[in-house]
Amino acid sequence: MTAISRFSIPELDDVPEDIRDRILKVQEKSGFVPNVFLALARRPDEFRAFFAYHDALMEKEGGLTKAEREMIVVATSGANNCQYCVVAHGAILRIRAKNPLVADQVAINYRKADITPRQRAMLDFAMKVSLRQAEIGDEDFAALRAQGFSDEDAWDIGAIAAFFGLSNRMANLMNLRPNDEFYLLGRVPR
Amino acid sequence: MTAISRFSIPELDDVPEDIRDRILKVQEKSGFVPNVFLALARRPDEFRAFFAYHDALMEKEGGLTKAEREMIVVATSGANNCQYCVVAHGAILRIRAKNPLVADQVAINYRKADITPRQRAMLDFAMKVSLRQAEIGDEDFAALRAQGFSDEDAWDIGAIAAFFGLSNRMANLMNLRPNDEFYLLGRVPR
Amino acid sequence: MTAISRFSIPELDDVPEDIRDRILKVQEKSGFVPNVFLALARRPDEFRAFFAYHDALMEKEGGLTKAEREMIVVATSGANNCQYCVVAHGAILRIRAKNPLVADQVAINYRKADITPRQRAMLDFAMKVSLRQAEIGDEDFAALRAQGFSDEDAWDIGAIAAFFGLSNRMANLMNLRPNDEFYLLGRVPR
Amino acid sequence: MTAISRFSIPELDDVPEDIRDRILKVQEKSGFVPNVFLALARRPDEFRAFFAYHDALMEKEGGLTKAEREMIVVATSGANNCQYCVVAHGAILRIRAKNPLVADQVAINYRKADITPRQRAMLDFAMKVSLRQAEIGDEDFAALRAQGFSDEDAWDIGAIAAFFGLSNRMANLMNLRPNDEFYLLGRVPR
Amino acid sequence: MTAISRFSIPELDDVPEDIRDRILKVQEKSGFVPNVFLALARRPDEFRAFFAYHDALMEKEGGLTKAEREMIVVATSGANNCQYCVVAHGAILRIRAKNPLVADQVAINYRKADITPRQRAMLDFAMKVSLRQAEIGDEDFAALRAQGFSDEDAWDIGAIAAFFGLSNRMANLMNLRPNDEFYLLGRVPR
Amino acid sequence: MTAISRFSIPELDDVPEDIRDRILKVQEKSGFVPNVFLALARRPDEFRAFFAYHDALMEKEGGLTKAEREMIVVATSGANNCQYCVVAHGAILRIRAKNPLVADQVAINYRKADITPRQRAMLDFAMKVSLRQAEIGDEDFAALRAQGFSDEDAWDIGAIAAFFGLSNRMANLMNLRPNDEFYLLGRVPR
Q1: F81 part of contact set with chain A, CB < 8 Å
Q2: Rounded Cα distance, D33 and D20, in Å
Q3: Is B46 helix (H, G, I), strand (E, B) or coil?
Q4: Who's near B60: CB < 8 A, 6+ residues apart?
Q5: Cα(B66)–Cα(B70) distance, integer angstroms
Q6: How many Å apart are CA F36 and CA B59, to the nearest integer?
Q7: Which of A180, C90, C184, D48 could covalently link to C103 via disulfide, CB atoms 3.0 to 4.6 Å apart?
């Protein structure tokens, strides 16, 4: 079987308790352990910081829905050619948006996806942060405001794109393999 | 409902007989009419040339399996951000390769896909034709030969990448929408 | 002498009759056989599809003159660094436009060529299809309409750019050599 | 005076105690508060995750010296055109390397800097993670091993490049202004 | 008639004597005044420095023939999309190389031109200087040496590419128009 | 000690008198000889043309201040990753602008520097000439005029960017090392 990661994966018994707890909790909720948890567990401090950052951006309140946050993740990960993140967060996006098509659309070319003009502006901003960060300027914030986004929303969009830029790079570094389960999740109405 | 194409779609009754026949045949075989047939039918001469070219490259004998040909299509279409071709040919690839995972892997980053070194070399060559055609040289043919490909195979690989470069551009021009049916095809073992 | 192509060239006697007929006809008309006919003849089905597609786009009626169609070919081929297509279609453009200068101008930098604003918009659109297809949007069609182009013209422009993207890639794959005759054609008033 | 950030800066009194403590501690140690602490403090959870991640990568033991870690930060931030990070971490690099020249050299073009071949390989790897993550492969790990780096070192190098890719994007998003103090630090022997 | 330049052209009587002399001399030799002389004459100091630099690189002795120096100019100017320089120096290259084809070949894609492996290495080096200067390294000098070039030749190649990078930018800034005479020069055996 | 240049440096006694005079004069004025003088002196004709061109652009009267001219040099050299030019002209910019911060800001990301909107437009134009010369058009001149620049100023801006594009390429070709003195110049108020 193909390895989960280019780096070694620790035994669950050898992992600090707080990390093991989080892994068992996600397993209980999802029915399997997403490989990113296993792959990062070998570096407990980085594991903790990674998921704390993730939760701070993805679990918070604000002007973006949870589905929209995942949409940013999928578009960013597509632009960064990150297999793990497109497949795993594509599944989450399908579930959160209750839409079996939108994840593939956004991953390949968000400009052609079935999304609102507001979401299009959100992804334009996220792509600028991902691909042309040096050129971010007032006009980009103005384009968001024209679609009703606040500056706090702009931070959220930019920070999610930036954080998953980190995540994409780590996954590409590790050759992180998406769990087989993700591919089908959210595609078939239950 | 979102339109199939930015351009008008002809009534099936208004389409020349040979084109209508092809459309009905594909409908019978697949259970639905892939939108590319409807979208191109408004230009009968281009329709005929397009599918004649397609068949000449995809239905021929040679050193590449049918699944490998589709693999080239999916990788090329991913690199060209063509939603229609990734979704539609992703489905065909899953079916031909009897593998529910490989299409998404190849579309996002073929370097991380579950493919053989020979297929990796095949896709490296296809990407060079797609993205850096001006630099194609003897060393690229040598890399294929080192994996057992003949020069006829090299033509096949390059021609498929070139033809779907055309196809991707037409789909992006038309805003061609993939049929909903494609997304799930080949994902669930029957 | 330098080879016409990296691949073998068939004897004219070994070529299917319809293909031989087309080759002899072009020879009669032009006084020589452009190398693309010889180089593609080794794959009869692809030869037929290629020229059927070519004729469907280049010989049709519509809002673009024949010279303008060639202008798109030359600009596209310049951007794709395709020696055969720039040299061969540069000659055709000079003849069709009755202008000995415009082909070199368009091949090197169409923004500096002696063309009308309408033709400039046409080539801007063709370059977007050639080089940034993923970003094609309503604003590109609007820019064409502002210059009096219909949406059928937009299809023509985009399809010519897409088809010669295929042609350029095949020529770069084959190392297709332009016939010496093309270089001087249309440069000297007869 | 030019603002520190495009976003508001909280009063120190309004900041959670653990964050205020960290800010006061860095002020005591450095003699001033680097603006990144003030700019991130408005989002306490992200502040905590950011600095936890930072410390996990920059304060850990391992095959890289502290100066080498800063070297990766400066090269990454130069490639990403991040003014705050080049100026601030340039100062730290000068101090840690006890070298007043190396930070400017690495920021502008690390290939021309006064560094060892080992450090050159380290920065080549960091640049691949920063700029061409999709292509990371076995050959990149092999190049590091040839210079004596372990795979744990490879993780460190890649993770630092990835984390500062996030940091650069946040700074460019915020228009984060480097403190004036940084520009001169480490340039004059005390 | 289309203007020679976006900027004004001085009357020959208003030009300093040394510049007028040079202009009259080139007119006597060529039968016409290449537009670059007229366009730069409005800034006498820059005119003098430009042509002094030009002559120092193009008229000197050394390991490169005059035709090879022009070959570098044409390849550089093609890569930089400079219409004036490709057309004007294309003519000079045809004459110096006594070859009516090589200029168009080199301008469009030097990798496919009828040149020697030594000349191919020369143009690879020139392209690196033109397009990826930051990455120039020992391996580029070694590739030249492997083809028999000295390091003085390397300077010549690089300096010609660098100087015509300046020249290309000035021509693109001015919208400098090539004289009609250049297009046909050297194409027809006398 | 690291070499000044990849190429040999002549003895001052072996250098033509006019060049030696210029070198001694700059030494007297600055207290040291900037390495570019020594590195170019081995090719006297190119030395003379280079500095004549430099002086024609940098010492002339016109709508740009001397500090603004250096600002263009630093931004151009940053975009071209030229270590010598960023370090040496960064020092001159600090002195001429009487501002110890602006050089580092402009070198890393001029869009975030403490400069006026007029200077921002000036650098936008310089970057277009440096990085996208083929696309320079009327709209770029209009943007300068909107900030009060004349067309002569536009020439100055473009010519400085073009000349330092040459200079950057020569420095990268030579591996030209900045003198240690430059790094600190203009950073500390005297």
Answers
A1: no
A2: 11
A3: helix
A4: B156, C45
A5: 6
A6: 63
A7: C90
Write the CB contacts of A152 (distance below 8 Å, at least 6 apart in sequence): A62, A63
The whole-number average pLDDT for the span C59-88 is: 97
Instruction: Give tens-digit pLDDT for A26-52.
Output: 999 999 999 999 999 999 999 999 999
Integer Cα distance of C98 and D176 in angstroms:
58
Sign of CA dihedral E171, E175, E180, E186: positive
- Closest residue, chain A, to D132 (C-alpha): A80
| Amino acid occupying residue E182 | F
B155/C163 CB distance under 8 A: no
Which residues of chain B have a CB within 8 Å of the CB of E109?
134
Q: What confidence tens digit (pLDDT) does each residue in D66-121 have?
A: 999 999 999 999 999 999 999 999 999 999 999 999 999 999 999 999 999 999 99
For residue D95, with 0-12 CB atoms within 10 Å meaning exposed, 13-18 middle and 19 or more buried, which class applies? middle
Task: Note every long-range contact of C36-39, with CB atoms under 8 Å and residues 24 or more positions apart, other chains counting.
Answer: C36/C84, C36/C88, C36/C167, C36/C171, C36/C176, C38/C4, C38/C5, C38/C9, C38/C10, C39/C4, C39/C5, C39/C7, C39/C9, C39/C174, C39/C176
In this predicted structure, the answer to whether residue B84 has a pLDDT above a threshold of 80 is: yes
Distance between CA A141 and CA D2 in Å, rounded? Answer: 19
A132 part of contact set with chain C, CB < 8 Å: no
Interatomic CA distance for residues D161 and A170, integer angstroms: 10
Tell me the pLDDT tens digit for each residue of C7-66.
999 999 999 999 999 999 999 999 999 999 999 999 999 999 999 999 999 998 899 999
Can you tell me the distance from the alpha carbon of C93 to that of C182, in angstroms, rounded to the nearest whole number? 11
Residue C3 pLDDT greater than 70, yes or no: yes
Query: How far apart are alpha carbons D140 and A6 in whole angstroms?
Result: 13
3-class state of residue F155 by DSSP: helix
Smallest Cα–Cα separation from D108: which of F175, F83, F130? F83
Both tokens of D134, joined, read 């999709």
Predicted pLDDT at D95: 97
Chains in touch with F (3+ beta-carbon pairs under 8 Å) read: A, C, D, E
What subunits make at least 3 CB pairs under 8 angstroms with B? A, C, D, E
- How many Å apart are CA F77 and CA D181, to the nearest integer? 25
Residue D142: helix, strand or coil by DSSP?
helix
Q: How far apart are CA D116 and CA C136, in angstroms?
A: 47
pLDDT for E41-81, tens place per residue? Answer: 999 999 999 999 999 999 988 999 999 999 999 999 999 99
Shortest Cα–Cα distance, A112 to chain D (Å): 23
Checking if the pLDDT of C77 tops 80, the result is yes
What residues of chain F lie within 8 A of the CB of E161, using their CB? 169
Please, are residues C16 and C44 in contact by the beta-carbon 8 Å criterion? yes
Length of chain A: 190
Q: What is the dihedral of CA E151, E156, E158, E163, to 10 degrees?
A: 160
DSSP C150-182: -HHHHHHHHHHHHHHHHHHHHHHHHTPPPPGGG
- Give the confidence band of F35 by pLDDT, cuts at 50, 70, 90: very high
Q: DSSP letters of A80-119?
A: TT-HHHHHHHHHHHHHHHT-SSHHHHHHHHGGGSS--HHH
Measured between alpha carbons, how far is B176 from D44 in angstroms, rounded to an integer? 45
Query: pTM of the entire structure?
Result: 0.97
DSSP assignment of E86-149, as one string?
Answer: HHHHHHHHHHHHT-SSHHHHHHHHGGGSS--HHHHHHHHHHHHHHH-GGG--HHHHHHHHTTT-
User: Is this complex's ipTM strictly greater than 0.95?
Assistant: yes
Residue B136 CA to residue E118 CA, distance in Å, equals: 19
From F58, F88, F75, F83, select the one nearest F122 (Cα to Cα): F75
